[in-house]
Structure formats: structure tokens, C-alpha cells
What does this fold into?
Amino acid sequence: MATIETLYNVRNNQSVDLQEVPVFDYADFSHLMIRLFEKADNHCVNYFAYKTLEVLHFVACVADDETGDIALLSHKMKISERVALKSLTVAIPALHVFEREIHENFGVGFSDHPWLKPIRYPKNRADSKAEINDYPFYSIKSEELHEVGVGPIHAGVIEPGHFRFICNGENVLHLEIQLGWQHRGIEKLMLEKESYLQKNILAENIAGDTATAHATAYTQLMEALAGIEISERLEIERALAMELERIAIHVGDISALCVDVAYHLGAAVFSVLRTGIINFTQAWCGNRLGKGLIRAGGTNFPFTEDLKQQLYDLLDDFEKRFNEMGAIAYHLPSVENRFDDIGTITEKQARLIGSVGMAARMTNVPRDIRQSHPFAGYKKFQVNTITLKGGDVFARFLLRRKEIKASIGWIRNVLANTDFCSSGCARPDNNLKLKPNSFATVLTEGWRGEICHCAVTDENGILIHYKIKDPSLHNWKSLELSLRNLEISDFPINNKSYNLSYCGHDL
It folds into this structure.
């Protein structure tokens, strides 16, 4: 019988020979997965399948937030002998979405799965007859209940998603979110595009508001597979870009939440503050979202001493105005009363469904890759993870404020202890030579939460599989659960308090 001691552990941003990833029969694989999840600090960062010839390979990556290890374990199945596997979701609810994706992509059944529904409707799905308009929504038969459908086009962000409410009067009994309306096929394009620059640009556009975090995941993955070591300074610059992205999106979300409770003074001030941050990013690299800044092996836009002084001045002005407006907005009874006890998720629920990032931290789950599996500049300059216990809209509102202040403090610490000369920076390498027969997994912490990119190469060092996981894949379930027993009128502020990504989910 396989044991925990037989597992193969790697660290974040590490590539390994495919032969080193242990292959178990499915019974032992299941036993080990269940054993791993007996430890509260463990969570699944990815579980996917890929095909080579007539074999389907399954790979699971389970991160230990206490030790920083990532356990790799796998199992195989001959396509010609494809059989239904016993679902692990009953024992490990957080795996529900991974098993659903494998079922949708490859037609592998999972017996006893409580919710084996499509999640994306990709063009290359196993069952081409499965149409999005035939999605099997959960329903309750009762003359006292009614259904409300919202979407599939979001009136604000013009992104496609359908929300189906089952209500008793105004009270929401159940919400089900159906995504999968857009088909960019980014994972497939990662294999088809020959240029690594094109792949890099694709990574920036997985979720446009998370360009630097996804680009950092891609570049670190390619560098790991190519055996490239970058300078400490470049690692620090990438982390700086990610913290600026965090501040910009968080303050923009605070503004949006103020809009939803008709506090327009706060909305206006916080929106203006966001503009200053993204304008600095534009001054740094020519794009307000940071596109073009993060490149494999080097940079075209080194951070300079002049930029350092500009950032010091910006943060001084930003923090003064942010604190002044925050002292008012966060103590207004009209704001507090509208956010308190709305859309609550418990710590137990967050752990069961595998919530990550903000959606986890606002329930007292300290899940933060910057701290547990440090990468880039976070290896030298550590982050203190902030958690709250409320689990409601106000907790998500307050966590953004606290994370902005923490990010400003982190950036100031970096600027005070790093020299940024204008010379000696490596240029990007777009002619990468990847290791053959290798596997790598990389985790970054975007402003929404944990991002995971995995890749597999063949005997010629060519990518044969590229797997992307945006934090929204986990956290949409949090939004569903948090609407139960609320009035349907609470949906807009609850949805806004999460600000999850449609395109990051649909890929």
C-alpha cells in the first residue's frame, strides 16, 4: 500500500523529470489524496489530465501551506479501456470542479460525484452534443417558489455569465452560476503558438485585470523548464508590479462598492486614487495594466532610481488621501449597515470548497502563496498574511483596505533596501530551449488569490500540455453559497464584493 512517505515533493517554481512524478493505481492515488487532506494546511492547487497517444495521464498537485512543499502524484488510464473512476469529491469537496473539468474534457466518468456538470463548454469538449443552452440547472418543484434568471451578459463589465436564482418571495434559497460562454482556447493556443513572446502575451490576457500576476506565472514556468536563473533584482521588480496591481484593483473595488450603496463621494475619491497607481505603471512600462512589463529571462523596462523617487512621492500622496477617505467611508453607519452580515461564508465552508486568496482570508483561512510558497521578490521581502473572521461583504470591503496598507508598507520596505541602477539588466529571452520530458508547476498570488500554471514537455522539449488555473475557478462557489437566505436585492453588492473573473474561468 502506498504511503504518504512515498510521495514526491517539489517546491514552487521547480521543474522535474516526468519519470520522477510517481504513478499509482487509482485505489492508491485515492487513498493518498484522502490522507493528504486530513491535514488542514494542505489544498489542491491543480488536478488535471492530458493525453499522449492512447494514454490519459492524470496529475495532482497538493500544496502544503505549512512546509511550502507541493506533493506530486499521478495515475494513468488507457483510453481504449476507459472506465468510470470513483469520485473523490464526496471525501474532498474541493475537488468537485477538477473532476468536473476532467469529465467534460475527456469523457471520464466519476461515479458518486454529486455535481458532475459541465463548467466551460470548450470547443474541444469530449461530448460535442452537450450544448450550453441545455445546462442542467438545479430546480425545486413548488408552487410557492419562482426562478429568476440574470444574464448571460453582465450589464456592468459586459462579460458573459448566467445566474439562476430560486426564490421564495425575495428570499434566495439557491443560486447557481453558469459560465462557459466564451471560448478563447488559451491553453490550446499556448501549444499552437510557436513564439514564446506570443505565449507571454497570451498569459497577460488570461484575465486583463491580473496581467502581471498571470504573466509572472508564465515567465517563471518557462524559466523553470529552460533552466534559466534570473537576478534577484528582476524578481523584486516583478513583485513590485504585482503589488501595484493589487493596490490598483483593490482601491477600484472599494470605489465600486461605494457606488452600490450610493456613497458617491467615496466612489469618486477612491476611483481617482486608482488612476494615480495605474498611471505610474504606465509611466514604468507604457501600459496602465502592466502589459509588456513581465517577460521571460529579463526585462525591457528596468525599474530605475528615478522611478523609485516617483513611486515614493506617489505613495505618500496616495496614502494620505486614502487614509483620510477611508476614515470616513469605513465608519459611515449607512455603509456598515448595508455590508454587515450580508453574504457570509464560514471558515468551514471556505475550507470545504477550496476557497483561495481574499475569499479564503476573509473567513480566517490564511491562504496566501506569497507567504506559504514564496516566489519572486517575496523570497527576500516577506509578506505578513492578513485574515479576518467576518466572512461577509464588510469583511471583503475591509480586507481590501488592510491589504492596500500592507502592500504600501511592503513596497516602501523594498524601495528602502534595494538599489535600482539603470544598467546591467538582462534582456528578455524569446528563444527558450525547454528541458525534454519535464513537468513544472508554478504558483503566484494575484490580487484575487492563488494562480497556478503547469506545463509538460515531450522528448524534444516541446510543450505538449499547458494548464492554467485562475483563483475564480474556486471562488465562484463561494459567491453561490453566500447568497443563500439573503434577499435577491443583496446580489449586486455581494457579487461586487468578490469581483471574480469570467474570462479567467472560461479561458
DSSP finds 16 helices and 13 strands in the chain.
